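Justification of resources, computational component.

The compute hours requested in this renewal are based largely on the per-chain cost of generating structure records like the one below. Each record pairs the submitted sequence with a full structure-token output. That output is archived, and it is also reused by downstream analysis tasks.
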Amino acid sequence: MVDINNRYTVVQTIEDFTQRLQAGSLRNCVVQGIDVSLMCVNWETVDTENAFFLGCTFAGIDEEIKLRRKGAHFFAAFSGLPYNPYRTSLYTPAELMLGYEHGGDIYSSLDAKIYRHFQDHGGHDADIVEALVQRIHDYSMDAAMKRLLKTDPVTGLPARKAVGFMGGHVTRRDDPHYRKTAVLARLCTRAGYFAVSGGGPGIMEAANLGAYLATADDTAIDRAIEILAAVPNFALPNGTINPGYVGQALKVLKQYEKGAESLAVPTWFYGHEPVNMFASHVGKYFSNSIREDGLLAISTYGVVFSPGSAATIEEVFINAAQNHYAVFNFCSPMMFLGTTHYLQSQVYSCLAQQAVGHEYAKMIMISDEPEEVLRFLQKNPPINLGYHDPGVTA
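The structure output for this chain reads:
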């Protein structure tokens, strides 16, 4: 029987695992993805009461039986999957594009294979086993992103000052808002912020592009966009991915080989979209709802909204609810880059009216100028409310 009243310590490296073996205890530890068969362990000297082994490899069934008798629990490795649910790190664009050769079949990539598997197993309506495996995978993404951002135990803020960038996935590479988003992401990265996007094409690609080029000269964005705009849309008329879209991104990466870091958080729910090649870290999810809420939650230092459609508007009000109720204890800036779009749609005025009387009312701004948005961001750090407003009703 599992003791759910205990808190667990996750062990994901050989070094940590070895240290705990030497100390003689794995009690209430979750050991994830480690090949134990490579080690000669005297289990008689190790306390394994209520220990969990997730996707670990053992020398044989006798060893597992011995550990079960000593109070351990096992989540076996799964076969036949194109992905590892027990992985302990985020993806990289290169890893997701594994199997794709420049100019070849875009659907030969690992990313495309995982998407086909996702579709073949029911998509968002997967059977119980596939659903469980996907949830384990998505939890692994959660944990890996927390390690990347490194929350300060004193302030509760991430060491990386994450700023989210939201906007339309169909925005063309030659659209003025694409360039403005890239410029703002570069400015933010140079100012010490950490750009986070939804990991797709359009505005999301622009954000990771701008962050990537933060270490390049000031002409780099226009040069890069000139290359990218040769293939402005990610989809062909029949709805398939235009391989030239990724090909142009690879040309930019070849010209500017060492860029700054940023994070992309996409989902296989939108697996028809190409891999965002400019992010250094990719936290890709199966569940879009978990990914959507989590993406906004980690953007503690603020969120930039460039023009977008229904999904972007949804993100505006998810973010507003997080601020409104201090769901994660902090209230953060909400910045709109595109006055005509957000004033005509009344999204901005609706949000401002909803915020009246709340702390985040002073954290909302709208502009067409990336430099002005950055200044607002710098003047408005996150506010630690640390409580749920008792005067607020749903």
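The chain is about 40% helix and 10% strand. Residues 388-394 have pLDDT under 50 and may be disordered.
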